[in-house]
Amino acid sequence: MAKFNIEDFIKPSINQIEKYLPGKSADFGNKDFIKLSSNESPFTAPKRVFQKAADLLISSNFYPDGDSILLKKSLAKKYKLESKNIVCGNGSDDILSIIAQTFSTEGCEVICSEYGFIYYPIIAKAAGCRVITAQSNNLGVSCENILEKINNKTRIIFIANPNNPTGTIIFKEELIKFLKKVPKNIIVVLDGAYSEFITDKRYTDGIDLIKDFENLIVTRTFSKIYALAGLRLGWAYANKKIIELLEKVRGPFNVNLIAQNIGMLILKENNFIKNSIKHNDKWRKILPERLNNLGLISYESFANFVLVKIDKKKYSKKYILNSLQKRKILVRDLNNYKLFDFFRVSIGSSPNLNKFLKEIELIVR
Ligand SMILES: Cc1ncc(COP(=O)(O)O)c(C=O)c1O
Fold first, then answer.
1. Going by CA atoms, what residue is nearest to atom 7 of ligand 1?
2. Domain 23-39+270-364 carries which CATH code?
3. pTM over 0.85
4. Centre of ligand 1 from the C-alpha of residue 362, in Å
């Protein structure tokens, strides 16, 4: 009789997956640690959005609305879209994965950017695709290099805009030029996880583009500006035909009851969003300045984190990150992104960032 052998079951591409490493966390609930490693919101959502949660939990014997109809209506109203153009997910990573499953064929190619979000190669490989990496340009996504990698096996292109972990952006003009050059039988996924933070008029979150580009899908999340990372809620918009396919592939009840309800309520919290953007805008300017003054190299970011390079001749990254951790400050090492001289620091609360700056100054001086 044949023996159980795990190798018999797996697609070769699954063997190539490197497990996703989340940003470092202290022991759960350990409030002594300052966590600046996962681009979470430093603010808790207003208490009133959680008020109904306990009552809703009591009806957990029933399934939630599998189609998230009310949530879609709220999103449609807020973002001036139509419900039929929206799909909801258990975090945007759920939707990204559904997209990979839906549009890949065995052995097809998926293009990702060097220094792009590390989950894209994972889901592409899980779906049996070959991952093609387009070289980045100055740490940003290079549309030109992506276009050069396109061939008749290409099925999906994943781009985060702004990009995580480098914080770079593709402005609307360049994006449209790029989209015009991508053949329409290739799905372009624009991941707008950090879209809400951007106030620059040269940027588009892509809502205005889906009518012209039928192959475009934009993914969004409630984990960043909406401060609901722990709840797991994401969504995407695209033309109706794409949404109908994603709706078929997703789990039948992929968004839980609490996430649907709290998601609807947080969308109404305009002041909370406005203040979060204001806070982020202030710190995304101050933080690189202050870090550069310390002799580190920090870059302009359009998102809620800042990329920092360490001059190997002057400092040891390992020493800096270990010293920060000893002082109970967690940032994101980027070795698994092959950014060996870099780390990423999330824009936390003002007291936490001041503490981070004070401690890192003591460490490097
Ligand atoms: C670019 C990008 N896309 C997607 C995600 C996943 O977000 P979610 O919490 O919605 O799954 C992240 C998380 O950090 C991200 O940085």
1. 92
2. 3.90.1150.10
3. yes
4. 32
